[in-house]
């Protein structure tokens, strides 16, 4: 099986053995789950250089640098405890060294930390490096929405694919079967990243729709916040199902309001309805929103994030804030009552009960 895959990869990518060098920027829960697979596949397919470097924002764990622990124990003991990396995964605390000479760079970190790193990354990677974003969120400027993949394309003058899917990191780390979606612009790069991530426990689908894939990955976190509110208020499955349906409808409407050419079928891929379902029943956004509702908003979301996530960041509320900024800028809050309600419950004095009392 591997011999056949290698033959295809050599023909498709016109690359000599070991010519593609992979780096991962980010080492949180999901980034660690992804780099674990990249390390395995770098050894499995000789189109890739064996070594996979992972940029780690250095921190001390019981007086020892996290990178030192990862490279000795082959495990991210803080963000993905119990899941072993192959020995070819190397943790690096310096961003320049982490991506030096890389031809394939994957990004999986909170998007608010991305821009300061980009100039050093652009200088250090190999010419013509191919990028992939697994960052779930959006940004905005004075004109409206800015996609994270566009920030990477513009800042690094490089092609950027997008990976999103129903991928709870701890389940991936246990090699529980799941799927993901890679959206691509350049078909060759889409197939190359598929080869890097596809494995028996993670089946990769590809679609030529980076925008649709990316928006699904970002917007579903807002819906998960709403689902978490329902859980915290003690509502049942019927209510939660209704919230998920309403949220999906607004995800599709938002995507098509601001972008043309999004494929309807993208919402039926792993990045769409599957990711939405798993995030609304598990994941950090639902978990924190549930706690926020159970406490009757007596604790701030920032306090709950610090208590429950161990250094990880809550993306759903940040995305809700960014989406609301754009909707308000365009005078469209009334067109998206669910997104607007999640924002107002999270950041204003709107009561939790509005999650079901708002006319959708």
Summarize it.
The protein is 51% helix and 15% strand. With 360 residues, the chain is α/β, with parallel strands linked by helices.
Commentary on this structure:
The structure is a single chain. Helix 1 (2-13) packs antiparallel against helix 8 and helix 14 crosses helix 15 (337-347). The model is unreliable at 1-16 (pLDDT under 50). The protein has 360 residues and is an alpha/beta fold. Helix content is 51%, strand content 15%.
Helices, by number, come to: 16
* Helix content estimate: 40-55%
Low-confidence spans = 1-16
Which structural class is indicated by helix and strand composition?
A: alpha/beta
Outline the fold blueprint.
Layout (H helix, E strand, L loop, with lengths): L1 H12 L6 E6 L3 H16 L3 E8 L4 E2 L2 E2 H8 L15 E4 L2 H5 L4 E4 L6 H11 L5 E4 L4 E4 L2 E4 H9 L3 E5 L4 H5 L4 E6 L3 H11 L4 E6 L2 H23 L4 H22 L11 H12 L2 H11 L6 H9 L5 H16 L6 H11 L6 H4 L3
Parallel strand pairs: 1-2, 1-6, 2-5, 6-7, 7-10, 11-12
Antiparallel strand pairs: 3-4, 8-9, 10-11
Helix pairs in contact: 1-8, 5-6, 9-10, 9-11, 9-12, 9-14, 9-15, 12-13, 14-15
């Amino acid at each position: 099986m591997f011999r056949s895959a290698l033959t295809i990869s050599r023909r498709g990518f016109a690359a000599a053995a070991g010519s593609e060098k992979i780096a991962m920027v980010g080492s949180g829960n999901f980034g660690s789950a992804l780099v674990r697979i990249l390390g395995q596949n770098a050894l499995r397919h000789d189109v890739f250089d064996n070594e996979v470097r992972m940029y780690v924002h250095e921190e001390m764990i019981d007086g020892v640098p996290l990178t030192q622990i990862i490279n000795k124990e082959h495990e991210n003991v803080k963000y993905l405890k119990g899941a072993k990396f192959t020995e070819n995964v190397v943790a690096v605390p310096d961003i320049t060294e982490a991506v030096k000479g890389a031809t394939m760079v994957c990004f999986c970190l909170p998007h608010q930390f991305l821009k300061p790193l980009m100039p050093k990354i652009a200088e250090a990677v190999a010419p013509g490096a191919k990028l992939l974003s697994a960052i779930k969120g959006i940004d905005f400027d004075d004109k409206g929405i800015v996609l994270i993949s566009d920030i990477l394309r513009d800042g690094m003058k490089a092609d950027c694919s997008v990976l999103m899917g129903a991928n709870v990191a701890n389940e991936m780390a246990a090699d529980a079967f799941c799927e993901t979606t890679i959206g691509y612009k350049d078909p060759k790069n889409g197939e190359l990243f598929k080869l890097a991530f596809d494995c028996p426990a993670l089946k990769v689908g590809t679609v030529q729709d980076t925008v649709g894939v990316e928006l699904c990955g970002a917007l579903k976190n807002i819906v998960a916040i709403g689902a978490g509110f329902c859980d915290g208020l003690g509502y049942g499955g019927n209510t939660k199902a209704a919230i998920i349906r309403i949220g999906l409808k607004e995800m599709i409407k938002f995507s098509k309001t601001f972008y043309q050419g999004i494929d309807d079928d993208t919402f039926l891929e792993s990045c769409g309805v599957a990711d939405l379902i798993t995030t609304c029943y598990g994941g950090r956004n639902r978990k924190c929103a549930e706690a926020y509702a159970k406490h009757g908003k007596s604790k701030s979301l920032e306090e709950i994030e610090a208590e429950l996530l161990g250094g990880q960041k809550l993306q759903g509320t940040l995305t809700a804030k960014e989406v609301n900024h754009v909707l308000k800028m365009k005078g469209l809050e009334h067109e998206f009552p669910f997104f607007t309600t999640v924002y107002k419950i999270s950041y204003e004095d709107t009561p939790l009960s509005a999650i079901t009392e708002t006319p959708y």
